[in-house]
Amino acid sequence: MSQRLLSLVESLKRFRYIKFGLVGASGTVVNMAVLWLAQEHLFRTIEPARDRLYASLALAIAIATVNNFTWNRLWTWADRLQAAAQQTGSVRNTDTIRTVLGQLGRYTLASWFGIALQYGLTIWLSLALHYMLANVIAIVIASVSNFLANDRWTFRQR
Read out DSSP for the chain? Predict the structure, then answer.
């Protein structure tokens, strides 16, 4: 049974959107952990709690974005980076600081809509729901736009 499950997971990992989803899931865990730590501990002195949520959410989104960029670059779109390196004849070309920073910039810009959508939806939904539940719902909604933007621009095949 466990061998079949491992085989299924291995076959699913070949699909880019599944990889993106798994990276997004790890980013959600990072986002939620940072949001909770910031809201309940790091920015505890900011009152009222609603004002504290602005800073906590911005920090959580920033850290999760760097986490997701790193894993998407190393795993989700690694094949495109390797292909680009082979075309230029230099494996080290994809690892230069300038290349990585350029991709991080494109990743962040490509994700801006999803980030803004997540931020706005979380703030809005938190009026009626617990802020953690509001954030999960917003993350799910924003993930589709993030995938499409990054697949077609940040890590596009050249």
Answer: -HHHHHHHHHHHTTSHHHHHHHHHHHHHHHHHHHHHHIIIIITTTSSSHHHHHHHHHHHHHHHHHHHHHHHIIIIITHHHHHHHHHHHT-GGGGGSHHHHHHHHHHHHHHTHHHHHHHHHHHHHHTTTS-HHHHHHHHHHHHHHHHHHHIIIIIT---
> What predicted TM-score, i.e. pTM, was given to this entire model?
0.72
Q: How do residues 119-144 score in pLDDT, each as one tens digit?
A: 999 999 999 999 999 999 998 888 87
Domain boundaries, the chain: 14-154
Q: Is the peptide bond before 48 cis (omega within 30 degrees of 0)?
A: yes
